[in-house]
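Appendix B. Raw example, untouched.
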Amino acid sequence: MIYCVTFNPSFDLVFSLDSGCDQGETYNQIPWEGRAGGKGNNVARAIKQLGGPATAVGFYGGAMGAMIQQLLTEQHIGCLAESVSGSSRVCLTLLTGEITEIRGLGPNVSTEISRVLLQRLRTQLKPSDWITLSGSLPPGLSADDVTEWITTLRPYCQGIIADLSGANLVAAYKAGVDAICPNLLEYQQLPNNFMMSRLSHIFITQGPEGVLWYPPSPTPPQRIFAPVVPIKNPVGAGDVFVGALAYSLWQGQEWNEALVRSVAAASASVVTKGVGDIDVSLFKELIPRVHLGEP
């Protein structure tokens, strides 16, 4: 199983306004889509689209939280949920030729509640399982909680991949995850001495330019070059990359082979209008067009 942790799940509401929009105007009859959001839930959905096993793990509050869980169930994604007071958040995306995102505030989650879900997950783990940790933290949690999750879970699973940012990403790296997946901006915001000792795999995602891969020292870095595809919606491509990576590693593939498939999957998602939806037929066609080389 692949357990996809979303610390701060959301109901994602996406409006498509091809002609753009102006502030202060009213727009009617606009195509929209609602889905279970938060980066970890996007990861789980990508794994399911590729044919893999995924369980979404997260904190859910109120009617909005119940609706997110229902949407996951409808997509045949298992859900390991811990109830919290308050309401799960709503995030709004406007597709107007450009991408505008408005992200709501999630419910407060205490360290005590976090530990309840953490122990529930630990008791379910098998040595062959993989875990992904994705997205922002809700109010009440900090980088110390990220450290506790990793040090608690890592002895019981095959590996952990972290797609976090800032202090949370640094904490995950120091706690001993197997890989981190910052985008270029997130990487540039890390401390200057971050790369002094490479203890884990570091994947810096760079959109159409592919992925810069720093294996653990002393192996030299490589670049995974992405195929050229028409881009309709890049939102969620990073989550697809993480999902495909976790699924490939769960299947027993080596890191280089898993990376090729992950870049192909991410490339096959940006051609769709959905957030992190994969054109599976195109994904299979793109695999031979992804190649590794020097940075």
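End of appendix B.
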